[in-house]
Amino acid sequence: MNKVLIITGGSRGIGAATAKLAAERGYAVCVNYLQNRSAADSVVSAITRSGGQAIALAADVASESDVIRLFETAEKELGPLTALVNNAGILEQQMKLENMSAARLNRVFATNITGCFLCAREAVRRMSTKRGGSGGVIVNVSSFASRLGSPGEYVDYAASKGAVDSMTIGLAKEVAEEGIRVNAVRPGFIYTEIHARGGEPNRVERVKELVPMKRGGTAIEVANAIMWLLSDEASYINGAFIDVTGGR
Ligand code: NAP
Q1: Which pTM was predicted?
Q2: Does residue 245 contact residue 148 with C-beta atoms inside 8 Å?
Q3: What is the CATH number of the domain that holds 112?
């Protein structure tokens, strides 16, 4: 059976690195993105230039109708889904909780929590052996922030990743008998553009001394852990977390 992967937020950062690695490992890849079409197109071009198969699809994971269209289109173009990487995630300007508006909280929770749940739902509906599917694998991209809480920066973001952790544990048990494994990676400080969105593009340089290995991580180092969880080498791993944090 062909391996077909949807990766949300596959246009940049950890998602882009994972999309390219997955294509190298033989997956047909749907590169989802929100708005940066040129970034998504360049990931797809890199994959197709190397002989792989990929498409780019715009969809806001926080929108139920977008998510449904994303999964329907991906399956129509690439075939039955075998893997989902729930990677799309946002944070906002660093601030203390006492200054956070409801609008901000709703944006962060809608993308990071609702988006993750909606995509998992669509994946389960297609993969579940109880629904006529052939099974599959889901990897959620959480964050080590779920353990540390991100005080003074983005407690909302950290809490959203706490929800992703709980969902990983619950869903893994819920669908274990239906041929689906659900696991998560929890990256630490990784060099991507997400930190600019929080108002501090060089954040990893500032905080890297907190890491026992005294450096930030790269997107490909996270992608390697995601790909292992997707692979058959992890066939008895379910409801588990890999911390990609340099030992923090
Ligand atoms: P990034 O470089 O900022 O890339 C974010 C990706 O998500 C982009 O592809 C973006 O699409 C997409 N995206 C954002 N909102 C979306 C939405 N509503 N619907 C669909 N796609 C959306 O982020 P990153 O650092 O690679 O982070 C990827 C994941 O790792 C996130 O879940 C993040 O929380 C987690 N993480 C990152 C770090 C770190 O240090 N970097 C640490 C721990 C966890 P566009 O290109 O169209 O904007």
Answers
A1: 0.98
A2: no
A3: 3.40.50.720
